[in-house]
Structure formats: structure tokens, C-alpha cells
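note to self: dont lose this again. the chain is below, predicted strucutre after it. 282 aa total, dont forget to put it in the shared folder this time
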Amino acid sequence: MSNKTYEIRPNQSIELLKELHILTRDGKMNQDSRRKLKQVYHLFQFIEPLLSSVQQDKGGVTLVDHGAGKSYLGFILYDLFFNAHPAAGSHIYGIETREELVERSAELAARLGFGGMSFVNLSVAESITSTRLPDAIDVVTALHACDTATDDAIRFALAKRATHIVLVPCCQAEVAGVLRKNKGKSLGNALTEVWRHPLHTREFGSQITNVLRCLQLEAHGYQVSVTELVGWEHSMKNELIVAQYKDLPRRKPAERLNELVGMFGLAELHERFFAPAPLPGA
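---
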């Protein structure tokens, strides 16, 4: 292998990387492609153990990738894990609103013989009730699903009783908009200084959005961890939220969630971050 492709994993399909335009036809990579591949591989390191865990527990693994785009992640996961560990019932579903990308991905999967991949032309919100997807899904991913699409992906994962959820949130504008609208009215104390300036409103809105998302997942019994996906030099949107369902106690995170929604004047968004009433003793 040439020194241009030294980062590629030994069991990775070179033909796939060429089809995804990560490699040129003569097997070379430019700086942008190298960065893109590094990011996908870095995420694969987080997801591979989750897939292995599900497969050990039940055999086949179902994964839904929301906002799939050109399905870089789905194809890499299928090539490196699903092909290497075939199991009956294993399947990857890519959800994407742009029809031309759905068609292109379906054609590529057929050309490569990736029979356990499907691509569905739906929004994240529409996918929650669509009959084109199974009633239960093991792993749900949403990478840079803009604004409320990340919250819809969480609702999808909860509705499908997902064991694992992997999120890289992006463009959290809704909470910032509500903070901006209610500025000066929700609180009469010094805490409003945290988001008084427009730049701080945007940054704090992004931060509190992800805090509420984590509490929402914990209020549904998930264990949640938050880490960085890649170094700051690659992306400013690099927060990685990983959740695993463990049927943990729900009362405290639900109370904290509701308290924060009230504290920051976000009552109109309560439904988006809904936390169920905990069971007795939970």
C-alpha cells in the first residue's frame, strides 16, 4: 500500500473508499478526505463495542443512522463490522431527507453487495411512526442532525427502545431563540447575565440544550456519557453523547430536568425534553 493510504484499516474495502470519493481512482487521498476518514474511524471506535455487545446478547444488530447524508458512517460500519461479523437479522437503515442521496446510497449498496443496508427518504420526525422501519432498533446514531432533528432522533430512539444511542449534536438554535425571546422576563437576578449578550445567548443555548438532552435520556433510564469526538482543530461541533439503556433510577434526573426548564424560562419547550413521571420507588 502506498504511503498515501497508510491510515486505512487493513480490512477496509478500497473499492468502497473510492466509491465514497475518500480515495481517488488511483488510490490517493487529499487532506480533506484524510480528515473525513479519520473522523469516521474515530467514531467507529466508539460504536464498534456497542455493536459487539448487542450481537453477543441477541445475535443480529439493527442500526438506524439519522441524517445519513451520503452515508459515510453507515457504509464504513457495514464494511468493517457487519461484513466481518455476519448475523441473521443484522441491518443498517439510513434516514435522509434528500431523495437524490437516498437513491445514490441505495445504488452503491447494491453495487457493492451490501444487502443488509436500506435507505429511506424520510425526515427524522416522520421516521418515528413510519411502517418502513422495525418496531424495535438496537442502535441509533445521529451525527450533526441539525437543530431539533437531534431531539427527534432521541424521540425515535426512545420509541424504538434502543439499547444504545450515539449523538453528535449540531446547530442547537431553538433553545437560544426562546432564551432570546424571553430575555429579561424569565429571571430577575444576575443569572440572566449568562446569556445577555447575543454570542453568549447562542453558546449558552447550545450548552443547555445538550444538558437537557442528557437529563432527558437519564430520566428514561439511560446511562449517559459525554466526550469529544475529534480535536478542536477539526470541528467546533465535536460533542459526543453516548447513552446505554440500563433501567437506572429516573426520579432525580426527571426532577432536575423539569427544574432547569422552569429556571431558564423554557416552559414552551417542555414537550420536546419531556421526562416521564418516574415509577414508584424509581
